[in-house]
Write a structure and sequence with these properties.
Helix content is about 45%, strand content about 20%. The protein is built from 4 helices and 4 strands. A 4-stranded mixed β-sheet has the order 3-2-1-4. A hairpin with a 6-residue loop joins strand 2 and strand 3. It is globular. It starts with a helix and ends in a 5-residue tail after the last helix.
């Protein structure tokens, strides 16, 4: 198997567990240049809050969008937007990525803003 198919297999397993719990999920996706995060409703068809390194207000705050500092800013912004939407408790869906680096920075920043997962 390739790295991508392994990652997608892990993501499928995680999403199945989260769907069984029936709670909102914080889904994260990253590329080498950008990072995207969104809070998705348990039904899976509604996005409650989102933030990415391509947002205009976030783009002005960061120098380079593919590093840990940018991920922390995105996590903070996502947590603030989720609070406005009335969401504080989520399940963390890392999309099969390892929990380190940018993924960890985003999660830690969201926790600091009051999100629970």
């Amino acid at each position: 198997m390739s790295k991508k198919t392994d990652r997608l297999r892990r993501a499928r397993k995680t999403r199945a567990r989260i769907k069984h719990k029936g709670i909102n999920r914080l889904s994260v996706h990253k590329t080498s240049r950008h990072i995207y995060a969104q809070v998705i409703a348990p039904c899976g068809s509604q996005v409650l809050a989102s933030a990415s390194s391509l947002d205009k207000e976030i783009k002005g705050q960061i120098k380079y969008s593919g590093n840990v500092e940018a991920a922390a800013i995105i996590g903070k912004a996502l947590a603030e937007r989720a609070k406005k939407a009335g969401v504080s408790n989520v399940a963390f869906d890392r999309s099969g990525f390892k929990y380190h680096g940018r993924i960890k920075a985003l999660a830690d920043a969201a926790r600091e803003q009051g999100m629970e997962f």
